[in-house]
Write a structure and sequence with these properties.
Number of helices: 13
Radius of gyration: 26 Å
Helix content: 10-25%
Number of strands: 37
Strand content: 25-35%
Oligomer: single chain
Distance between the termini: 38 Å
Shape: globular
Length: 648
């Protein structure tokens, strides 16, 4: 660790003092001075190797930053004046399928990320969960696990046995990178904000013991909101209690001191910004407000982790969701979070103001921002209709279809994210009837004999359908908008969960086919794009011809392509004016979701996803396709709204 990052902010170093209490006490009792833990406390003060210290951390998630940019973002955190990086570990990112062992290579090379942080002179705090929240799909828990009939985040043996298997793969990797082993890891969190979820202390004890048994000897701590309710549920005797908050640090300090008078004040998450939901405004927090709270945390030797120091991006379909009064609130693709280091790495006014408060005085090693492509507009060319493109992709890489009286859920099909195509052939009497979707999670595009009827969701569960007395080919594309990441709704299933009715009669006899869009390769994308050759011309709905399931009228949804030239890779921001809702791939990489309900308008495309020469953007448009792709040199995250999280 670069000690200058400590001494220019905290109290000056002095010789180690006896009787400092090491923080890592696996048994729950105070450890002895001989503990290998690097961090210790005594009389409300934190020590590192016996020298007075404060943790000045910035949250940075390796899974939200392209690996080629990890070092750049870590250096920017150091430039901010911080001495530590903390990261969650997303189980579902490493093991999306139960029948495959967790991966720790490529983008999932957590050990490389941790070593990179250490090479840049910073400590590392790891938060392995297994639940992480983080506005990440399913709170980081694999959907193959939460789809079972078990009690997540509890001492249910079926849950803990699964976690034990995951920890058996993960924790020894972290243990080998601890400070006691010459690595940068100085602290590991026990679970995550458990007190806002439940009160199964046997589970918390199990979690702590599972870490210790697998080799964790450094600091162990819990983190919860600063309320009696949350602290009662989430804390453990003999384990450091940290707080998570966005405001009122003085009140939080007083509460924690009243409960744990010997422990230092540590804020494991200081929410200096906030995330965004589709259809709402872009949340920001003023520089003055954020700096004022940060200063209050740092008073009297307080330690802090700025959440987020750099937010990054919810690439692919990893964005989570919240649920309020039974209504899903999906999180946008961007995780900029109004952080001091913006989504594309640029330094913001908040960065410079926080840097001053943190006492950083050295020169900046990083440029204000990385190179960006010049603005341009290119044609977005429609290549295939929606259903015909999906049909072609599913033929190119066949998947198993489930046949049953009712539609199969995502979980039954082993599908984490994407679409499920449900088909049935009900007989519809002559005249107009109600087609009712009693419980759709989260959104369904509905077609009858290839003709688009509309969207069904929780707010609009009914559509009109006109029958002739004959059977109708009913196609329902069910889209998951992100799995709930916080609260009692974590783990809820996706799909057509309730009956589909024609008036009062239930539609039975369904075929359900998973469309695993995050797993699509160039083979599926090419097949989908080529499906319209010779049968699709122009860009509007009136130009689509054909019969049966391949014929889509009444909508210009489908697959489209745009190409642009780059002299050299550089950052850019993609916008799709005129397009409504869908997904965007760049050179075969699923960048994320776009949606005209905002607030997010542009999608950040980092330079490592591009190459010199021609680059290809593929769009799966689910509702209405525009005719232009814009490359912009600035992000547009939507109209703003000041937001500061407060606990009552």
């Amino acid at each position: 660790m670069n000690e200058s990052h400590t001494t220019n902010i905290g109290p000056p170093p002095r010789p180690a003092e006896a009787a400092a209490t090491p923080l890592a006490a696996p048994s729950g009792a105070a450890a002895t001075a001989a503990s290998p833990a690097l961090l210790s406390w005594r009389d409300g003060r934190l020590y590192r190797g016996g020298i007075p210290h404060r943790i000045l951390s910035g949250a940075l998630h390796y899974f939200r930053v392209h690996p080629d940019l990890w070092r750049d973002r870590v250096r920017r955190i150091a430039d901010l004046g911080l001495n530590t990086v903390d990261t969650y570990v997303a189980w579902n990112f490493h093991q999306p399928r139960e029948d495959r062992t967790p991966r720790f290579d490529g983008w999932r090379d957590l050990e490389r990320f941790i070593r990179t942080v250490g090479e840049e002179g910073l400590d590392v705090v790891v938060r392995p969960g297994p639940y992480i929240c983080a506005e990440w799909s399913n709170g980081g828990l694999p959907s193959w696990l939460t789809g079972r009939d078990l009690a997540i985040r509890s001492s249910d043996p079926e849950f803990t046995s699964a976690v034990a298997g995951w920890f058996g793969e993960l924790i020894p990797r972290l243990a080998a990178l601890q400070a006691s082993q010459g690595g940068p890891v100085v602290a590991v969190q026990v679970e995550n904000e458990f007190g806002s979820y439940g009160d199964d202390h046997a589970y918390l004890h199990w979690n702590r013991q599972a870490l210790a048994e697998r080799g964790i000897t450094e600091l162990l701590f819990t983190a919860d909101g600063p309320t009696e309710l949350m602290l009662d549920g989430g804390t453990l005797p003999g384990t450091l209690t940290a707080a998570t908050l966005g405001s009122q640090p003085k009140a939080a300090r007083e509460l924690l001191t009243s409960r744990r008078p010997q422990e230092p004040f540590v804020v494991a998450e200081f929410w200096n910004g906030w995330f965004d939901h589709w259809g709402k405004r872009h949340h920001v927090r003023s520089v003055d407000s954020a700096v004022h709270t940060l200063s209050g945390i740092l008073d009297d030797h307080g330690s802090v982790s700025i959440y987020m120091a750099h937010g990054g991006t919810n690439f692919g379909l990893w964005a989570g969701a919240n649920e309020t009064e039974g209504r899903l609130e999906p999180v946008v693709t961007s995780y900029d979070s109004d952080a001091p280091i913006a989504e594309d790495g640029r330094f913001t006014p908040k960065f410079h103001a926080m840097r001053e408060v943190l006492g950083a005085t050295g020169p900046l090693r990083s440029p204000e921002r990385l190179p960006v492509l010049p603005p341009s507009r290119v044609a977005l060319v429609r290549r295939a209709g929606l259903l015909e493109g999906l049909d072609a992709a599913l033929r190119a890489v066949p998947v198993e279809t489930s046949a049953a009286p009712r539609p199969a859920t995502f979980e039954r099909l082993g599908l984490d994210a994407g679409l499920v195509r449900c088909t049935a052939r009900p007989r519809i009497p002559a005249g107009e009837h109600r087609l009712v979707f009693t419980d759709v999670r989260d959104r369904a595009l509905v077609f009858a004999d290839g003709v688009y009827l509309g969207v069904a969701d929780a707010d609009s569960p009914e559509l009109k359908i006109t029958g002739t007395g004959e059977t109708v080919g009913l196609d329902v594309l069910v889209e998951s908008l992100g799995r709930v990441n916080y609260g009692p709704s974590v783990g809820r299933p996706k799909g057509l969960l309730g009956p589909v009715l024609v008036d009062r009669r239930m539609v039975q006899g369904w075929e359900s086919t998973p469309v695993a869009l995050p797993d699509w390769s160039e083979r599926e994308l090419s097949a989908a794009l080529d499906a319209g050759a010779g049968s699709v011309t122009g860009t509007g709905a009136d130009s689509v011809t054909g019969t049966g399931a391949d014929s889509v009228t009444g909508t210009d949804a489908g697959f489209a392509v745009a190409e642009f030239h780059a002299d050299a890779p550089a950052d850019t921001f993609l916008a799709l004016p005129g397009s409504v809702h869908g997904l965007v791939w760049v050179n075969g990489f699923l960048l994320g979701r776009h949606w005209d309900i905002g607030p997010q308008v542009t999608l950040y495309c980092p330079a490592p996803l591009l190459h010199a020469g021609v680059n290809t953007v593929t769009v799966l448009e689910l509702e209405g396709l525009g005719d232009t792709l814009e490359l912009r040199d600035e992000p547009e995250l939507g109209p703003t709204e000041e937001y500061v999280e407060e606990f009552d």
